[in-house]
DNA sequence: AATGAATGAGCTTTCATTCAT
DNA sequence: AATGAATGAAAGCTCATTCAT
């Protein structure tokens, strides 16, 4: 039930998986405590549902957002904007998916790790292609991808939608950082024109 | 007692603060369960001790490692190397200091947040100075600092000392990313010579 | 649940509130330890329930037993007999209601103190009326009431239903003491005829 | 040590024997926790010491205060005044000696019960003698003694030295009640002259 | 699909007590 | 005589889970 998921998301975000009691989860979802077991086999399943659902949606949205046949640098820019937007709008899911992995039982962790790897490899492939095409500096593409992902994924920690910087401004700032970090300097000089590729679900804007 | 800290560090890293039972902590530390209360007033104090101790040491080492009177770019490089080395060697502390903040009671959280802010401001100041000196691209120094810190701090998530990449190789790779991300392109082209400043406690290497 | 109350009454009487463990209480009541919390929010509530329930019943029985419109001396005699009978038959409740007051949290103590005050004032009013009517010696009615209540309430400390003295004999003996203590000597001389007013729930007897 | 006794008296009075932790007792007495065991074999001994010491002193003071060879009624009056004064001045000891008996181990309880019995029998003997001498109404002397002792011992529950009634006024009021309760009416009429026998350790006063 | 009642296992914390110094 | 450190046992309470309805 979606009310359980909503309550679980909020509670795990605030108190952690171990810190969330099922009593409270049920109360917050507006149902009886034992009714939970009509929807989930046990507590762990609530966490697995939240994490997997988020990561699967992340993956499928990614594939929809990033055209497989575009040139590497365009795919790179699209990826950056997609990732940033998605993460700024789902700070709780992002936090849970990172810091509650340790609460997953091995089999569930393996499932999640696989999803995560597929997402990471999407960026790794983009970077690899970009290097092959000569538009990115030669470097270890895995290290570069991990570095960029960590940088981008850290946004929700401090970003506040009501704060002084708009989502768009933060996007632009981070994209500049990321592009500068990996692009071939010459290409980077040209990239300003293309940074502002609009995302399907975000209001279009021009450079 | 240091044995309690060692056990607490490991257990909180593996199972989280809420997931760590004091029975297990005591057993792991090789003492009776109630003996814990001769060293800490309560469970929370164990966490506070671990987090504060780490952050205070981080701050004091930072101040020792980064000379206040050096030019901005040199300070930047020193900061990067210091931060990376410190974080690669303390993956558990790093993880705890980030993802167990929510388990801190308000007063303790305030104390930790202050320490964290002081550390972040060290990098912000460096970037601000670098921009003023014209060696770094104009950008929001806070955003740049947060972005870089997230990128650098993400290393321990995947870095494995027994893995194919050495600590030094990872350092060099990340420093290239970070420098490229914020440096003025011209300056960056010149920076390769200076990236490999050796740290006192790490084996010297050449660029 | 009444089985919990029965077990709690016995255990608190024997070992005191602080001395009663909830493990033992549950065992004595024939339920699991955590089942207690389905009936009481916490340990204190068990005590509050026992004390308040007894005092409220005491008050309501008193009002049923003592007719408000009878002459003072008749009300006095009825009060004495009622109080004695009630206390001889509930030695454990009486003891708890007196000596566990200190274990009550302030709010609960206030509630109980109010009930107790209402009971005491019933006797004070009787004595005041008796003095106004000239059938009792002039004295401080509060002091007299406290003195008599202490005297009467002390019965369960030594009274043994299986002992040599019957409930009725003890009643008569104490009533003589109490009447002599406060009655106007002339009236007291005449009162022997009226001492033995039968109580509804006690076997009728004649003087 | 007398500081331990003082702290124990206060703590047991406030929180009960079971409710008094030895940590707190030691802190209140200004000594280390384990130092207690240099003075008492265990917690129980602290209680036994307090109770026995009080009852033994009560007994020995009683024998000093009440002359064995005086006529019954004079001894009665002396006893009343002695008991009241002693109890009004030691409310905490009195409370403990009554309501902590249940915390005594059997052997210790027996010892205390014996002391208590000796005290009660002093009054029983006085009443018996009074009846034999014809100055008191015929009644069960044990019941009368228990009734009077309960009445008199209840004073400290409500008496407040700073309150509106002085110690002397309360004494006089209670003595009138007690005398009226057991005296032969004719004798009682004559007794007013003799109520105010002064106690050694209380300021002399006149009727 | 939903629930109230029940429960064994576990939680953090405090207990009275011991012991080496 | 005094103490700091240590400890097994027990405290009150919450946990995730089951089950009959």
Automatic annotation (TrEMBL), chains A, B, C, D:
<keyword id="KW-0238">DNA-binding</keyword>
<dbReference type="InterPro" id="IPR050109">
    <property type="entry name" value="HTH-type_TetR-like_transc_reg"/>
</dbReference>
<protein>
    <submittedName>
        <fullName>TetR/AcrR family transcriptional regulator</fullName>
    </submittedName>
</protein>
<feature type="domain" description="HTH tetR-type">
    <location>
        <begin position="1"/>
        <end position="58"/>
    </location>
</feature>
<dbReference type="Pfam" id="PF17932">
    <property type="entry name" value="TetR_C_24"/>
</dbReference>
<feature type="DNA-binding region" description="H-T-H motif">
    <location>
        <begin position="21"/>
        <end position="40"/>
    </location>
</feature>
<dbReference type="InterPro" id="IPR036271">
    <property type="entry name" value="Tet_transcr_reg_TetR-rel_C_sf"/>
</dbReference>
<dbReference type="InterPro" id="IPR009057">
    <property type="entry name" value="Homeodomain-like_sf"/>
</dbReference>
<dbReference type="GO" id="GO:0000976">
    <property type="term" value="F:transcription cis-regulatory region binding"/>
</dbReference>
<dbReference type="Pfam" id="PF00440">
    <property type="entry name" value="TetR_N"/>
</dbReference>
<dbReference type="GO" id="GO:0003700">
    <property type="term" value="F:DNA-binding transcription factor activity"/>
</dbReference>
<dbReference type="InterPro" id="IPR001647">
    <property type="entry name" value="HTH_TetR"/>
</dbReference>
<dbReference type="InterPro" id="IPR041490">
    <property type="entry name" value="KstR2_TetR_C"/>
</dbReference>
